[in-house]
Specification:
alpha/beta; Rossmann fold; seven-stranded parallel sheet; 7 helices; globular; binds nicotinamide-adenine-dinucleotide
Length: about 240
């Protein structure tokens, strides 16, 4: 098929940050393939974007090598190629380390770390052909912790490392960067935040999915092609704040 649009694949796009990223990329002129484990919410999110000619939903588990390969093949065949991969799908299981089962540990690592590797591997031939980019969504929990978050924290630390490893292996044709968000309110108004939740941030507020989406649009832009292997911390300044009591 002839190239008509730049094309982005966004995983975990049924809601939250992924859905906001899909909307932002659509606004930037991309055709967007939304991928998610949750087919019902994913299809609703795709329909809600209101641009059927430039939007597709594909049900996929990012931890499954067969599904991720099929996702990239479908994205490339529908829109003629892939210019941008956003590895956003992620899960968290919060349990004391003595209670976290090996299966739970593995599932978190499979989705949050192996998933981005599988998606990058499957998308690489298409991205290379377009001199495209990969953007991984890690977390400030890669850099600091609350108790009982071992699997999530380790997966996100691994994702920052995977970012610079891939930047070296896939460059110069493919740029690979990472965004580490802090507290992003993805409740879509369902959760009421306290004044203190906002005030503790040096920036004066909790983040929004759109904050992440706008930063991602900047990193995706080929005009910013000198940025690769980087981790952009997007947390309203929280990781810059000393908190000794
Ligand atoms: N919200 C925050 O405060 C915050 C902060 C730092 C990092 N993050 C990261 O940002 C990303 C998005 O977070 P969010 O808050 O929007 O999450 P969310 O839970 O609202 O959405 C995550 C989406 O990923 C999908 N998903 C889960 N497992 C999947 C799988 N195996 N395959 C495909 N899709 C799958 C879910 O169905 C869901 O639609 C995650 O990687 C998360 O770790 C979020």
């Amino acid at each position: 098929m002839e190239k008509t649009f730049s094309t982005a694949v966004v995983t975990g796009a049924a809601r939250g940050i992924g859905r906001a990223v899909a909307a932002e990329l659509l606004d930037a002129g991309y055709a967007v393939v939304l991928a998610d484990l949750d087919a019902q919410q994913g299809q609703a999110a795709a329909a809600g974007l209101g641009e059927p000619a430039r939007v597709r939903f594909v049900a996929a588990d990012v931890a499954d090598p067969v599904a991720t390969a099929a996702l990239m093949t479908e994205a490339a065949s529908v829109f003629g190629g892939i210019d941008l991969l956003v590895n956003n799908a992620g899960i968290m299981i919060r349990k004391p380390p003595e209670e976290l089962s090996v299966a739970e540990w593995r599932r978190v690592l499979d989705v949050n770390l192996t998933g981005p590797f599988l998606c990058a591997r499957a998308a690489a031939p298409y991205l290379r052909a377009r001199r495209g980019a990969i953007i991984n969504i890690a977390s400030t929990r890669a850099l600091m912790s609350e108790p009982h978050t071992e699997a999530y924290t380790a997966s996100k630390g691994g994702l920052i490392s995977l970012t610079h490893a891939l930047a070296l292996s896939l460059g110069p044709e493919i740029r690979v960067n990472c965004i580490s968000p802090g507290w992003i309110d993805v409740s879509a108004g369902q959760e009421s935040l306290r004044a203190a939740d906002h005030a503790q941030h040096p920036a004066g507020r909790v983040g929004t999915p759109e904050d992440v989406a706008r930063a991602l649009r900047f990193l995706a832009d080929p005009r910013n092609g000198f940025i690769t292997g980087e981790n952009l911390v997007l947390d309203g300044g929280m990781t810059r704040k000393m908190i000794y009591v």
